[in-house]
Structure formats: structure tokens, C-alpha cells
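We emphasize that the prediction below concerns an isolated chain of 179 residues; any contacts that depend on oligomerization or on bound cofactors are therefore not represented. The input was used exactly as deposited, without trimming of termini.
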Amino acid sequence: MNFKQALLRFLTDLDAIAEKHPEITDIMVKEQISESVIYYVVHRQENGLRPIQYGMVSKEANEAVARSVNRFAETAWNDAHYKLLAASERLELLQDFSVQTDNGSTVTDYLILNDTDADAINSIPEQRFKDLDATGFAELTGKPSKPRYNIRVLYASLVITLLIIAGIIYMVLTFSNKS
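Result of the prediction step, given as a C-alpha cell string:
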């Protein structure tokens, strides 16, 4: 099976899931599917684990998506030509809009391919590898992830806030002096 055939099978699998579980086209689900596809199919990162959580409503739906993503990762890498390509060329193949299912679905119906840098997808959140408990939430272990701050944005926000406060104080003082 070549890559185009693997992509068509993947999209067809997702169409079948969408018939029972329309939430597969929700933005957050699409982002999580995309993250896994970019990580495992485009950049061929392997750590022995694959995500089982995709933000679907039920465990059954998450398992169906996980099976589809895993099968796609395996079958894509069975194409000898695909293995020889650079990640950017593999991404181009993934963005082939001529590959359409019988329902007319293309890769954009299930994936969001706007952040495809390997460093941007260097780790998939730990909770996506956890099974859901009875309440529908993944049991989290370990310490919480470190929040990411952009110091330039924080600095700009602080400066803007201080300028607004200074403007308000100036207006209050100017108004009270005229009274």
C-alpha cells in the first residue's frame, strides 16, 4: 500500500467514525489527531507509546480514533518511497487535497496542519496516554507541566497596563483641579 492509499484508508476510517461520533470534527479533536499524525507519521517519532485520548465523548470513540491513527502511522511507513522523503516532503504528501473519500472528505476535514514543526510538537501531553476513569477524566500522575510564558508578551502587557493607569490618574488629577 502506498502513502496515498494509506491516507485514503485513514480518511475513510475517520468518515466511518464521524457517522457515529460527529465530535470528531471539533477543533480540539482535530488538533489532537493532527498532533499525533505530525508526530508519528510526518516526523516518525517513536517512544513505544501512542496516545489513546483524542477528546472524543466516549472511550469507544477514542479507541476508534487511536486505532485509525495507529494504522495510518504503520501503513504510511510501509511505503518504501515515503521512508526516503524529508519531513517537509512527507508533509506535502499529507496535504494532498486530491485524496478524497467517497463522502468527499479531505485531510482538512479531520486535521489542522498549521503547526508542523517537530520542535512545536516535541511532546504530546501525558494525559493523552492515560485511560479514562469512571468520571470521564484521565488520571494524572507526576508533577504538573510547567506553564509556558512569553516574556515579551508579559512585558508589553505590563507596560500597556501601566500606561492606562497613568492616563487615568492624569485625567482624575486634571479633572479635580478644574473643579
